[in-house]
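We read letters as residues; the fold follows as tokens. Both lines appear below.
***
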Amino acid sequence: MDNWKTEHAKNVEELFAGIDAGDFNHAGEISDRYTWLHLYSLLRLADELDDGQELYRQIYDVAISHGRSCVRRKVQNREKVRIVFLAISAAEWPAEDVYRLLEAHDRVECDIVVVPLMDRDVESRRDSYIQTRDYFVKNGYAVREIYDAESDTCLEWSDIGGVPDILIHLTTWFSASAQPCWPLSFPLRCIQLYIPYGIYVADSADGSFAVNCVYNCGFVNMMWKVYVDSEKNREGYQIYGLLKGKNTAFSGYAKMDPFYEKRKYSEEEIRSLWKIPEGQDAAKMKRVIIAPHHAIAGYGGILYSTFPRNAFFLLYLAKKYRDKVSFIYKPHPNLRLRAVEAGVFESYEAYDAYVREWDSLPNARVVNESSYMEIFETSDGMIMDSCSFIAEYLYVNKPLLFLKRNGQAFNRLGTELMKAYDTVWGEDYCAMESFLQDTIIGGRDERKTLRESVWKKHLDYASLNNCMASEYIYRDICGLLQ
């Protein structure tokens, strides 16, 4: 038997022994020695057991009931309920207003734990961790540090206040993070929920990515609640998920709440966000985001990045239009790693030199781990081959040029949203420059009405729910505190 099967079989045997011993007969009194790893192991072996999936659903219900009972007991004893957000990046932080609402709740102690990403090289891991930690500290969040960047080691939860009562995840890719932050590591009394950091539009060419990595992955089947960005994606959980979507709620995408109130920016604010050449009128400079994805050779079954075909041409455009356009180079946080793995650059130093060339231009700035909401609002357009931005950029209704390659695929939501955008092949340099000249500089935005129509149909959650996504999620969590 494979090693992973041996370990999962051992965990399932422990779980079955506990069931036979009556350890799960009283939902509020389950020992902490039973963790979500036990249920994950049952999930992984469910197809090899008689009625394994139904058994999983039954034990899942008992585990959720146990967690809710433990929270209720703390509320009845007038103890604070500890809620922790696991943040991986300021750029991927979707829960600003949810945090602020919970922070003000008199029954809650609310913290941020910044998670180190172990699938990156040590230098990138440290840099992204420090940038993210500093962002949250600077912006007044209560931050507890589980990672020592200097020694590249992690603490235990007992060192930072103990296991939370409610844990809020922001990504499904838990295996990329430090193991103490994996959902499997927590006792069943820890209620876990998921607020996605992006809108799901991606799929693999064979359709397996959306099913296995989104709608029916082990992670979502362990969550008390998954807050879904759109009705189309909720349907995906209902059709393909082991739990048939019963732990999902169509809240809308909390990260987009601020875009429902249009904000005006002063020239000073524009200049603080965008690099405007000395002597140039900021109001006359167009502003364009360049956002390359990291999936060059394939990652998790998806292929999006056209970066090897156009990395230096896009830099050339920034140089050529230095007097007319200000650029922000906004790569996916994993692009540095993937570009070197795929041989686009021979070393991290070579990629870093490329990035410095962007940043050295009088009309270009590099943005990595910081929030990009203000950048979206103040931009005039985007050129990219990313995933979630396909949906997110519709909230500001600006022109977007999507760069195509063979192997790209989308789920049902993504397929609908792509109808709103111009698309060209990633090596079609003439078409890219035409978009810059005609649509951005020339102002001939022929898809504006179509983009608004697509957004209203698929992504306008506030109209559908009569509230912001953050308020929806907050009220739902408050239901646990009754």
Remarks:
- The first strand starts at residue 81 and ends at 87.
- The two ends are 47 Å apart (CA to CA).
- The mean pLDDT is 93.
- The CA atoms of residues 82 and 109 lie 5 Å apart.
